[in-house]
Amino acid sequence: MYQIEIKGFAEFSRNLERAGGELEKKLNVAINKSISEISRNAKLKTPVRSGNLVKGYRTKYGNLEGVLANIVIYAPYVEYGTKRFSGRFYLKKGIELSMGKIESHFSKALDDVVVRISQL
User: Fold this and answer.
1) What is the DSSP string of 8-38?
2) 70 forms bridges with which residues in the sheet?
3) Where are the domains of the chain?
């Protein structure tokens, strides 16, 4: 029987476990910031007639997930359009405007975790 011993692996494994919790926290922060950014930009692009669409945005956060939804019943029709009405794609435009910041939030989260692992 052959056995291979990797020096420092036990310590590396412990550090990786500790960093796992840190990664989850940092990713949750990045998700929350990203959803807030999308919400802000989507509201800027949302067409305003009565103001209900802008007021209808709701956010929900969980572990490693975030949701931005509009609770106004006609929101999907304004976003995607109908046979007689072309879509306005305000949410899509909000997401596109937010992509740079979203990438930056996640990049920072991962960089912070890498720095943390290197310090352990």
Assistant:
1) THHHHHHHHHHHHHHHHHHHHHHHHHHHHHH
2) 57
3) 9-119
